[in-house]
Amino acid sequence: MTTRNLFLLPGDGIGPEAMGEVRKIIAYMNEEMSAGFVTDEGLVGGSAYDAHGAAISEADMQKALAADAVLFGAVGGPKWDDVPYEVRPEAGLLRLRKDLELFANLRPAICYPALAAASSLKPELVEGLDILIIRELTGGVYFGEPKTITDLGNGQKRAIDTQVYDTYEIERISAVAFEMARTRQNRVCSMEKRNVMKSGVLWNQVVTATHKDKYSDVKLEHMLADAGGMQLVRAPKQFDVIVTDNLFGDMLSDVAAMLTGSLGMLPSASLGAPDGKTGKRKALYEPVHGSAPDIAGKGIANPIAMIASFAMCLRYSFGMVKEADNLETAIANVLDKGIRTADIMAEGAKKVGTIEMGEAILSEF
Amino acid sequence: MTTRNLFLLPGDGIGPEAMGEVRKIIAYMNEEMSAGFVTDEGLVGGSAYDAHGAAISEADMQKALAADAVLFGAVGGPKWDDVPYEVRPEAGLLRLRKDLELFANLRPAICYPALAAASSLKPELVEGLDILIIRELTGGVYFGEPKTITDLGNGQKRAIDTQVYDTYEIERISAVAFEMARTRQNRVCSMEKRNVMKSGVLWNQVVTATHKDKYSDVKLEHMLADAGGMQLVRAPKQFDVIVTDNLFGDMLSDVAAMLTGSLGMLPSASLGAPDGKTGKRKALYEPVHGSAPDIAGKGIANPIAMIASFAMCLRYSFGMVKEADNLETAIANVLDKGIRTADIMAEGAKKVGTIEMGEAILSEF
Ligand SMILES: CC(C)[C@H](C(=O)O)[C@@H](O)C(=O)O
Ligand SMILES: CC(C)[C@H](C(=O)O)[C@@H](O)C(=O)O
């Protein structure tokens, strides 16, 4: 029997509660489908800081590196607002992305039909929305050096962050975007600020060259990132796949996620390059929403984004396409039945907690 | 009689057409109100490149520096897509901002009641919207060095952009935000990414210290810039004044502008520091929309954003508050009467061109 190694990092806030529902799905798949998942579990974020004084321990980093896939909950909370910069909760997530070389962040922004009314946009603009944002995740201003605060004397400090992109980094992320587009509507829109940033100039050139070389069958468009933000708000359905850098991707994917009205439901996948020999790629799956400390521990968090992230894991790490499809359909069915957690509650719907939502999805699966 | 020196830079695309309508208002104010405006005019952007091979000539830069205020149209267009980076149309605007030290960019995002239906957001979310985004305009990644593309050999290039912020830059822009807030709802929301960027850490510290020192009567809130983008889309009316850096300000103000449904109508002001002796501040006023090359020269462009920018000029450069109020009311009245350019056309409204719109506003003024 195949063994599939999963490393679970529930993290802080509502992370553990959401992860609990995924654990049940894993157990079910092992029992009923002989899926062969072997799970181990570690700490990340504030909970790792409390235990080890670091946002993730070396031992857990090793386990993450060894696993077939990492499932990540969420990190952060007011409790750790004043811990030193180097060990703040986010540092654990950033280190995982960097050390696992998870350069490709896939963020679907889809609008669940049952939730179109929850969007702040007019329903006709978001109904049926299905965008895939491909965000570069290991480069740019997130990791470039120097990244410093220097005391200049006279009460003045100088802060510096550095955006760095090399050709190969842009090549590989645009290749992912073009490959993904071929499985969808075959359209890619690349966003940068080439009118202001040199990295935008290079980004534009490399995406254009990669397209010409290997993917000329895909329709490619370029847009300035600020105009891209506008167009997302004006007419989001014009997009299929968007490819952009780490910081613009952070902003644009959050705006896109909020547009859908389904923020609490959106998953993401962060993928590395396929291994030369085995073809396997390192991967981490996490919900787009944060740790929501205000509702943590109350049993009311929405586990759907975490479960949908596990569906992405089935699809991209294990090639279990049918199971992924079934799990996503189970989510949609539960929503269609009017079963809702508090964050997506609507008139006439049935309000449930985290556990009931998890069980409802499992029983549809 | 006071002399008021205006330097007009209509620029490219629809810039000159929009500026034409402001010129009529200036002439009217000189004749009917003895306003004493003295105007001179120059070239910027693609039209300057065509004439001088630079995005703005040295002579025009001198005139801009000497004027009481600069009125700026728009720059760029496909004709100049391939000119060298250093002389691209945007370089003229960026040089003006930098050399005039226009560090404070004021971008009101207001929703004209007559246009609420044009927003992609549900009308109840934008009706009455009135946000003021204060964007830092002379620092950050726009101007930091190094800003280079280097050939690494092996077909690899490396692009670098540098975000730099010093304490004094953050201090002076946050002071502007707090001062403005006092004339409004007395609330400031500061946005950065302190969880990822050192400049975000310093930004947050300096805004907090400036608030504590001098503006503790103003309500201050901090938000991560990605969450800020989300909140703008979810519930924009929660904001009064937003203060943020150059690049986040570029993205967030464009998203906010698009939300209003009034994009073609939004003005902006870019202000320098008050002169130690005279108290005068250098200033440039420009519409938020771009050069719209596709409709240039057709007489159909909407001149309202340019005219509203001139109203900001009356208010901030010349203290002509009553005249500014009257001009803004004239715009609102014309819209209420159902007079519309093509970009804001609605059922039952009267469609007019650039000149008719300008004249309609002038006759209400
Ligand atoms: C938590 C934070 C470091 C992170 C980021 O900025 O990448 C988050 O906003 C995200 O988008 O995953
Ligand atoms: C034209 C461009 C350089 C400019 C900017 O990025 O600042 C524009 O987008 C703006 O917001 O004024």
UniProtKB/TrEMBL annotation, chains A, B:
Which family does the record assign? Belongs to the isocitrate and isopropylmalate dehydrogenases family. LeuB type 1 subfamily.
Q: Where is this site: Important for catalysis?
A: Y142, K193
Q: Which domain of life is it from?
A: Bacteria
> What top-tier enzyme class does this entry carry?
oxidoreductase
What SUPFAM superfamilies does this protein map onto? Isocitrate/Isopropylmalate dehydrogenase-like
What cofactors does this protein use?
Answer: Mn(2+); Mg(2+)
Q: Name one GO cellular component term.
A: cytosol
EC number of the protein? 1.1.1.85
Q: Which reaction is the catalytic activity of this chain?
A: (2R,3S)-3-isopropylmalate + NAD(+) = 4-methyl-2-oxopentanoate + CO2 + NADH
State its location(s). Answer: Cytoplasm
Under which name does UniProt file this protein?
A: 3-isopropylmalate dehydrogenase
- Can you name the source organism? Rhizobium metallidurans
Q: Which residues bind substrate?
A: R97, R107, R135, D226
Gene Ontology MF: a single term:
magnesium ion binding
What does this protein's UniProt record list under function? Catalyzes the oxidation of 3-carboxy-2-hydroxy-4-methylpentanoate (3-isopropylmalate) to 3-carboxy-4-methyl-2-oxopentanoate. The product decarboxylates to 4-methyl-2 oxopentanoate.
